[in-house]
């Protein structure tokens, strides 16, 4: 139906899925054979017993977050057993990580996958996670900016040297580079983050919840704002891409999901979408069945 639509899937990474890793390599290979364009992981380090801020506008943390596989280790593992499909983070909470270590890990994953890595980054929402990572949450924006600076230098310069507010890198030889510079996408939901995305990123990574009457206004207006910021910065606004994460809750129907994906493609002009199956799939087999239904109806 939609030859131009690129369809991806989030790897089953949380909750009971995390306890059944042995099934994940076969699942990823089956999705690649099915024709999936991309496979994704996300980033959680805590499930606070008494959260200051809950998940997705609630006052609680989903039980699934009690068990989470590490995103970078998972990407390396899945990247090594696939050969074509793009793999990516949506999103990695960049301020938690020393950028020099993150640069090394991301470069390694890109080398392992022969240049298939897509890097999605954000700043997160959980004060407890920042506390556990030993990072002041009120520095998240400036730390993300410095992380982007360091990644750019790590992937292009040799020697690499950096002096910033949060990190200093003495001049060092970095001869191992990615197969190609991984595209960097940013999660953004406010004017300041739209501006950063327009100035600095290759694209935008929003997450939405599907519904039978999903309204694409937020997507179209936000992407227009990001592209306007790109133009202000002297960049080509039309080069700013978008990848949408479709994030259903239990009880959502496959029709709700497919209707939403179709509407985003048709009305927002976004052709790369992926389905997060973690909350709705009962098993890896169920997740694969959902993927087959998506492909049967959309391709």
What attributes does this structure have?
299 residues; alpha/beta; TIM Barrel; two-stranded antiparallel sheet; 9 helices; 11 strands
Give a nutshell description of this structure.
By secondary structure, the chain is of the alpha/beta class. The chain has a single domain (6-298), classed as Luciferase-like domain (TIM Barrel, Alpha-Beta Barrel).
Give your account of this protein's structure:
There is one protein chain. This protein is α/β, with parallel strands linked by helices. The protein has one domain (6-298): TIM Barrel (Alpha-Beta Barrel). Helix content is 39%, strand content 16%. The protein is built from nine helices and eleven strands. The strands form two sheets. An eight-stranded parallel beta barrel has the order 1-2-3-4-7-8-10-11, surrounded by five helices. The mean pLDDT is 96.
**What is the total domain count?**
1
Question: From the alpha-carbon coordinates, what is the Rg to the nearest angstrom?
Answer: 19 Å
Q: Structural class given helices, strands, pairing? A: alpha/beta
CATH class: Alpha Beta
| Alpha plus pi helix count | 9
CATH architecture: Alpha-Beta Barrel
Low-confidence stretches: none
The CATH superfamily title = Luciferase-like domain
Distance between the termini: 5 Å
Element-level helix/strand string: EHEHEHEHHEEEHEEHEHEH
Query: Strand sequence of the main sheet, in spatial order?
Result: 1-2-3-4-7-8-10-11
Strand content: 15-25%
């Amino acid at each position: 139906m939609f030859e131009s639509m690129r369809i991806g899937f989030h790897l089953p990474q949380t909750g009971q899925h995390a306890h059944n890793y042995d099934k994940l390599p076969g699942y990823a290979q089956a999705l690649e054979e099915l024709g999936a364009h991309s496979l994704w992981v996300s980033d959680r380090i805590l499930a606070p017993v008494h959260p200051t801020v809950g998940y997705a506008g609630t006052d609680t943390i989903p039980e699934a977050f009690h068990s989470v596989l590490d995103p970078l280790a998972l990407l390396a593992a899945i990247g090594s057993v696939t050969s074509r499909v793009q793999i990516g983070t949506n999103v990695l909470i960049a301020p938690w990580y020393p950028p020099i270590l993150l640069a090394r890990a991301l470069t390694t994953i890109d080398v392992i996958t022969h240049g298939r890595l897509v890097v999605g980054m954000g700043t997160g929402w959980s004060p407890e996670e920042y506390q556990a990572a030993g990072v002041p949450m009120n520095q998240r924006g400036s730390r993300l900016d410095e992380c982007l600076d360091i990644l750019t230098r790590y992937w292009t310069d040799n020697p690499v040297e950096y002096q910033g507010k949060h990190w200093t890198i003495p001049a060092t030889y970095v001869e191992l580079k990615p197969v190609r510079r991984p595209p960097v996408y940013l999660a953004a939901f406010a004017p300041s983050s739209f501006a950063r995305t327009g100035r600095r990123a290759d694209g935008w990574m929003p997450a939405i919840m599907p519904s039978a009457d999903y309204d694409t206004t937020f997507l179209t207006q936000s992407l227009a704002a990001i592209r306007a910021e790109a133009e202000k910065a002297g960049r080509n606004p039309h080069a700013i891409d978008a990848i949408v994460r479709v994030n259903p809750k239990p009880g959502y129907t496959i029709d709700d999901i497919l209707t939403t994906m179709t509407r985003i493609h048709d009305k927002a002009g976004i052709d790369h979408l992926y389905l997060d199956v973690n909350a709705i799939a009962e098993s890896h087999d169920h997740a694969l069945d959902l993927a087959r239904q998506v492909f049967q109806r959309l391709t």
